[in-house]
Amino acid sequence: NAGVTQTPKFQVLKTGQSMTLQCAQDMNHEYMSWYRQDPGMGLRLIHYSVGAGITDQGEVPNGYNVSRSTTEDFPLRLLSAAPSQTSVYFCASSYGTVYEQYFGPGTRLTVT
Amino acid sequence: GESVGLHLPTLSVQEGDNSIINCAYSNSASDYFIWYKQESGKGPQFIIDIRSNMDKRQGQRVTVLLNKTVKHLSLQIAATQPGDSAVYFCAENMNRDDKIIFGKGTRLHILP
Asked: What b/e string do you get for A63-93 counting C-beta neighbours within 10 Å, with b at 16 or more?
């Protein structure tokens, strides 16, 4: 199993550009989530999904959209990038909320 | 979550000694707690979890203690090794909520 994969690994955007961060898992996990991690800080929950077709907001959802059309994929869309969105983004998946989450390697995003 | 700015709390421990990492959680309704380890440049990795109906749980070289009265969680690492050097995060979940919220991290530094 590949586990949780994220693409791209690195990305530089200009303010106002949009892009999609990809996340996929091959473990048939129902629960998937997106976090952002700023330097020297913990992880903050952006959006999460408890199954295909179901998404919900986390702690910091503004400026981000998600969709979950399949169990495997959970893309994160930045609608209009801002410098405040410069961060490392982690995708995670698990069998459910109260199970261990498996994290991807992260995407380092810089918005100039 | 609370911001700790650019500087994480750091715990320095002599190799071979036991490490105790503490976490104060915020929500008295939380009933599931998890510890994650994050090595430099990687995504967080599950260490151990505990449910609110338990006070203590042991794994391989790790023990988690839960004190619900004071909303405090601790992770004890026995015989600390160089490979334990990382940032450690606690996370919490409420049964009626599907969000998993991370707390402040602690950097564990191993002294030779």
From this structure: ebebbbeebbebbbebeebeeebbbbbbbbb
Write out the residues of chain B at the interface with chain A, using a CB-CB cutoff of 8 A: 1, 3-8, 32, 34, 42-46, 49, 51, 89, 93, 95, 98-105
Q: State chain A's maximal CA–CA distance in angstroms.
A: 38
Picking from B4, B6, B99, the nearest residue to A45 by CB comes out as: B99
At A18, which amino acid appears?
S
Decide if A45 and B102 are in contact by the 8 Å CB cutoff.
Answer: yes
Q: What is the pLDDT of residues A92-109, one digit of tens each?
A: 999 987 788 999 999 999
B110 by DSSP, 3-state: which?
A: strand
* Burial of A18 per CB tally in 10 Å (0-12, 13-18, 19+): exposed
- Please identify which residue in the block is written with the tokens 């600390």: B80
A106: chain B residues, CB-CB within 8 Å: 42-43
Q: What is the pLDDT of residues B17-66, one digit of tens each?
A: 999 999 998 788 888 999 999 999 999 999 999 999 999 999 999 999 99
